[in-house]
Specification:
four-stranded mixed sheet, UDP-n-acetylglucosamine1-carboxyvinyl-transferase, Chain, binds ligand EPZ, 24 strands
């Protein structure tokens, strides 16, 4: 995380230096799920009493969501991976732009605030590196529940026409995770029954539903494409444990396959990883369960090519696409990767190509021709999962790689380099002094930048 600008105009930015071709071994502990924690933290706004959340990962995004909730008047207390939230006094109905603009998931506060207060003002989250990411499905659903919603100078202003939102039958044009979560939360305090059709089925949606149910919400069908919510007047306090992060687990499994390493990981929920396991086995790796929540990957003798198409759950997760691309650059053949969920999520191709990968892109489709080896190089992370893909490629590559843009990685991986070092990886985080313009330019060699070990 860049430190505030020193008096000169240099930026202290950390980079990851990785020396590849090292076998990993041992066990890694998987943290709580980022995409559950963010939605559940926003969901705590529905409750006028204490909420204790357990297994909350320490991530930049979680820190930002905490700041947004605090700015709304919520009391938060963190103790290790336990987060106590009390939203009895919500003093603000407007989420601050400077915080919201840094975290797309901040839009999750819209539904709970509107349901609880009858009014909410949230700046439009805007697009990000991977796509335009509109919120039209969220807005349309809230309008169907009886809210007046206007967008005025980049701020979404929503107000209930009656005392409370009203239950409605809502068909989602696309099984959007965010829209399903927004509308499910809003419906918990609405008057009457809401039916969400073509709803998202992701495990994080189910985790949020279970969290709301633990506060007294009446929700059925989460995890299927039809969710039925009967609104209740008020929710009560809860003590809730967040699920393990299936994307972090998938990232470590792919790191094991790409470095021909046998590693084990826990806690995991195997069902959440079905498409990831299927594709790892297609590449020749073997997955065994040593315990109900403990998985081990046994690498194959080579990496076989396989085609991947990202889809909403239970299809192959878009959040694992980049990591698998890194793996398939070393396969013994050609693989076709089709990204159908986000329109701009192939930006890691250019950086993997710097390392010697052979990838052709046509629209949202990438043809990955396997090469015998990758070579270490200076590369730049362009988004969260792209940064994980570069780490995997660097662990498998010959020589040293320097990865810049770690602010992406820190958003979604808890202590990734510490966990990798514990598995025997040869890497370290160092901070380099760069001028602000340098910070965004493709990495120069460490010799050209002033290097000092990161504090
Ligand atoms: C969630 O984003 C996750 N983020 C994403 O994880 C994940 O990639 C995505 O779901 C899909 O699984 C969090 O949970 C915080 P969507 P979300 O609404 O809710 C379009 C990561 O790496 N759409 O299912 O924003 C949208 O543009 C992140 O951890 C509309 O058109 O995803 C996209 O193309 C990245 N209108 C598609 O649907 C809408 O109103 C899927 O978006 C909403 C979405």
């Amino acid at each position: 995380m860049p430190t505030p600008l020193p008096s000169g105009d240099e930026v202290d930015e950390s980079v990851l230096q990785i020396w590849g071709k090292t076998r990993l071994s041992g066990h890694v502990t998987i943290s709580g799920a980022k995409n559950s924690a963010l939605a559940i933290m926003a969901g705590a706004l529905l409750c006028p009493e204490d909420c204790r959340l357990r297994n909350v990962p320490s991530l930049v995004d979680v820190g930002r969501m905490s700041e947004i909730l605090a700015a709304l008047g919520v009391k938060l207390q963190r103790n290790g991976n336990i987060l106590d939230i009390n939203a009895s006094q919500i003093s603000q109905s407007q989420a601050p732009y400077e915080l919201v603009s840094q975290l797309r998931a901040s839009f999750f506060v819209m539904g709970p605030m509107l349901a609880r207060l009858g009014v909410a003002r949230v700046p439009l989250p805007g697009g990000c590196a991977i796509g335009a990411r509109p919120v039209d499905l969220h807005v349309r659903g809230l309008q169907q529940m009886g809210a007046d919603v206007q967008i005025d100078r980049g701020v979404v202003l929503a107000r209930t026409r009656q005392q409370r939102l009203t239950g409605a039958k809502i068909y989602l044009d696309y099984p959007s995770v965010g829209a399903t979560e927004t509308l499910m939360m809003a419906a918990t305090l609405a008057d009457g029954e809401t039916i969400l059709e073509n709803a998202a089925q992701e495990p994080e949606v189910v985790d949020l539903a279970n969290f709301c149910r633990s506060m007294g919400a009446q929700i059925r069908g989460a995890g299927t494409n039809t969710i039925i919510i009967n609104g209740v007047p008020k929710l009560h306090s809860t003590d809730y444990n967040i699920i393990p992060d299936r994307i972090e687990a998938g990232t470590f499994l792919v790191a094991g396959a790409a470095t021909y390493s046998e590693i084990s990981l826990s806690p995991i929920i195997p069902d959440h990883l079905t498409p990831v396991i299927a594709k790892l086995e297609a590449t020749g790796a073997k997955i065994v369960m040593d315990a109900p929540d403990r998985m081990r990957i046994i690498p194959g003798s080579s990496i076989r090519p396989t085609d991947i198409e990202t889809l909403p759950y239970p299809g192959f997760p878009t959040d694992m696409q980049a990591q698998f691309m890194a793996l398939l650059t070393l396969s013994e053949g050609s693989s076709v990767i089709t990204e159908t969920v986000f329109e701009n999520r192939l930006r890691h191709v250019a950086e993997l190509s710097r390392m010697g990968a052979d990838i052709r892109v046509k629209g949202n489709l990438a043809i990955v021709r396997g090469v015998p080896f990758l070579s270490g190089a200076p590369v730049v992370a362009t988004d969260l999962r792209a940064s994980a893909a570069l780490v995997i490629a660097a662990l498998a590559a010959e020589g040293q790689t320097t990865i810049q843009g770690l602010h992406h990685l820190d958003r979604g991986y808890e202590e990734l380099e510490v966990k990798l070092q514990q598995l025997g990886a040869n890497l370290k985080r160092v901070s380099i002094q760069t001028s602000p313009t340098e910070a965004e330019k493709p990495a120069t060699s460490p010799q050209e930048a002033k290097v000092k070990p990161a504090s």
